[in-house]
Amino acid sequence: MYCYNGNVSIVCYRNIKELVMKIYVLSVGLIGIFFPALMSMQSVENTMCYDQISVNTVQIPDFFSSQSKDFFQVHVLFAQLEEFWAEISDLECKRNGQQLQNILSTACLDLRHEALSVLVNLFLYHRPFNLSKAIDNINALCVASPFLVETMEYYVEKKGVIKELCGDLYPHQKLILYVLAHNESLAHLMNRDFIKIATSYEIIEKLLIAFNLVKMNTRYDPLYFHRIIKYDNEYAVMLEIIVSLMQNQTKMPNLQYFLPLFMADSFEVEKIFFNDDLDACINYFSCISSEDYNPFVRWHLMHKEFVAALAGAPKVFKYLLLTQSTDVVNSDNNELVRYAICGNNHEIIHLCEQYYSYTYSDEQRAALFMESIRWHRAALMNYLKEQGSLDYGNFLCDAVFFRNIPYFLWYISMSLVDNNQNIERAFCNVDAHDNLLFAQVFLEMNIDVNCSLAECKTTPLFEAIQSENVSLVNFLLTHGASAFVMPNNIGVWHEIAKLINGQNMTDKMGMGRIAILPFSETIAEKISNYHDQVIYPLCELLDRAGAPLGMQDPQGNTIFHYLVLIFGDENLLNFLLRLKNISYDDALLKIPNNEGVMVSDVLKRARRLGYF
Hints:
Elements: H1 10-34, H2 66-83, H3 90-104, H4 109-124, H5 131-143, H6 146-158, H7 171-180, H8 184-187, H9 192-198, H10 201-218, H11 222-231, H12 234-246, H13 258-264, H14 268-274, H15 278-286, H16 304-311, H17 314-323, H18 333-343, H19 346-355, H20 362-374, H21 378-385, H22 396-401, H23 405-413, H24 421-429, H25 436-444, H26 460-466, H27 470-478, H28 492-501, H29 503-509, H30 523-544, H31 559-567, H32 570-580, H33 599-608
Helix pairs in contact: 1-17, 2-3, 2-4, 3-5, 4-6, 6-7, 10-12, 11-12, 16-17, 16-18, 18-19, 18-20, 20-21, 26-27, 26-28, 27-30, 28-29, 28-30, 28-31, 30-32
């Protein structure tokens, strides 16, 4: 019984419930009379025209290499699974698994890992939300694709989990273990008892709901979003955010309490919404005195309707629409539809448009179209396309960033590429993830590896350095990227200097770099690991590529001016001197900046005073 007032009798409670239910049914009937369009789900055409974005008719151009074709085929295969996720049978899942097995049998490890990453996102954010169906689909798919299971086991073991501990798990349990193992603190806790509880149905359901509730909000928090992208560790960061919210604190979360928190928390109301349980919803809210009560405040979600839209729960959404008095209608009308796009429910979107009289400006429709790309909602993209034309080239970066391969292929197959500018801009955006397979795609499209964007004065190499993507920097340099190019009169060494003090991030976020490194490390470990894992490897790659250390910015500063005069980074200074086998008196340190300051003179004075 959900009643918070112990004096209320059961009879009274039942009468209230019956009354609310009658009012709700009557209201639904009236809405059905006056707004018949609201009561039906928009049908999705199985056969789509050539100018529609379809996962079924997408074409892979012949000029791509076999590896790139395999990369595309993996994504298209999963996109087809996602499109028909709720209706697909076990037999169809196994057939898709066999196709996936054929692709992965000759695939490199990077492509197998790519397939695993796509499967994780499909599992975490599937719609309509139905955990039992999702588990059946995952297991049926993996039975027919043992290479995918082997890839799970390989990466789980690589992240520090003893392989023998997960040998008896079902594929969907190994998939969850793979997600959890991304966080080092959790990986170290994994023994047999931990794994048994963490991969139980009850915990998995709560975990998936928590991921969905947090995922929508990370895009608004530059701190979290930056950490997720920069370090390509979305799962680790999301787990830290979830635990922080459940502990109702903003400081570093203690992952030791991960399992106790999930075991103790019932997720009662969250389950009601994500399972679209109307009866339980009526029971719950009929016992609450305030219609404005919001049980989702702890997730930083301000409106119950937003959660119902996010969950793709049309029955709960209608009930809230008709019985709960909130100010959601006064909020950004674009925002509620964004959540509904994540929920992938046409009925909720039409309810928003009709009941709230929502209309979209061109700018709002573009934002919703981008959201559809983000969540891979092909039918919703087509729906928004029908509302009016859009500059589809502007969304190519989003398609690359969110790995929406059907949109990417649709764009290039529709001959929409009348110039290379949009493709070049997307090439620069490939740095967001450690994805060399996608970088190879652009080279096979004959996009110049040194292409420079006039509006942001950058190149793919500069973007890769800014994203601290060591493997992509190595890939680009190996394939002809120039370390001598200086867009906006800034060289590659100056980009390294920005990384030292977090200047690149400070420009965007107004905070220091140390704040965004993994919670679990101490400050000293963060600085040391950052130099060892990112800065030093980047410096070695640039040195091998012949990047001249004497590059000067518009103020005449070399990287040595940055390290000595601005950041005081003695460790990197000495690393570069050893790398080039030079001393404090070398000519490189005697290059004056625009104010006539030479680093060699500064070092001499500093050494006399005992600073260096």
